[in-house]
Amino acid sequence: MPHLKTILLLIGMLFCICAPAQAKALSVDDVRFGVHPEKIRMVLDLSEVSDYRVFTMDKPYRLIVDLTSFEWRAGKVARPAQSGVRDIREGPLQPGVSRIVFDMDRPISVSTAFVIPRQGQTPDRLVIDYRHVSAQTFRVDKEKIHGTLRASDIYRNQNLATANPPRNDESAPPLPKAKPEKKPDKGTNKTGGKKKIVVIDPGHGGVDPGAVGVDNIYEKHVVLALGKSLKAQLEETGRYRVLMTREKDVFVKLADRVKFARDNNADLFVSIHADTIHKPNVSGTSVYTLSKEASDAQTAKLAEKENKADLIAGIDLSVEDEQVVNILFDFARTETMNESKFFANTLVRNMKEDGVKLLENPSRHAGFAVLKAPDVPSILIEAGFMSNKKEARLLNKPEHREKIARAIRKGIDAFFEHVQHYENN
Ligand SMILES: [Zn+2]
Questions:
Q1: What global pTM score does this model have?
Q2: Does one domain contain both 132 and 275?
Q3: How many angstroms is it from 274 CA to the middle of ligand 1?
Q4: Domain boundary residue among 149, 180, 209?
């Protein structure tokens, strides 16, 4: 069967051309410890210079070293008892990033981490100095991150389905934005003047009306109008590029809303909704972030309801859901979730200041499907209760929507001012 052979050969050749070789340029070739009176020095021999990120975690105490994807060639690492290292694990964390976990038998604090470039026969090295500290000092110091490797940058634009399953480190400290490399000779900071990309996501639409309130007011219409008002206000500042997941009365799948934000490299994702509840006197705005566990029973129910949007439209997303669940608690997500929480709190504060009526405990969390972009800080706003006669009618008025939009805009301003502050300091 020469024909079949030829075809198979051709297919084989195609694979060779198309399948990217597992190019793992970086390897960790050795790890050594030096015990000094005032510090312990850990040296990692690298095949080449890599971005890195070094920080600590507790429960149990760990030293974490993230590098660009590497091959582990250090074998079994000898470690003196004084190093405090009980065990070492390593492996891929997410596309583009691999992690080394040093299990420590006591709390430590990293004083410095730096790269020494290759000199003659001596290879590139990552040097980490740390010392044993009290549990209290550990708690203070564990927020510090040494190095500039940014998980979310690398994570951006990666296919959800190809994400590596998380390893054992779901919990991580909030990551401040990495300091951009200063290049004084070049003069300009490339990203400095760039507009932040905000994606507004008016909930529901088309076949899915969302909540239906008093006077037959539809959530899908109210939130689209509110979204447009917010877009106008954000654009007026000249600071943002604003995109909407829908600009008319159309149905958009939950996963596609998330994908839209990721494909457009959104810096922020704001999903807008309006709720109903069986208690007609309940009213007020509330803000939601993603979490594994719901903050309260009411929010759990709300998330369940909002997550049914696709089902209401007759779409079964169980397969896609599974992929999303698999990447739910990886490192990039933890960082993003912390940013989202920070944004939610900023928003609530600005709403209070602007006299927007808030629900009690207005900052809540649950497993909202639409907030699952692993690399885009995302929040969901319930602008009010359409089951409350007064609030439903208010939400139907442009002035009221403008007031809420203004408070949201101020919250977004405050959020990015904080982020900018981190990037500049
Ligand atoms: Zn909704």
A1: 0.55
A2: no
A3: 6
A4: 149
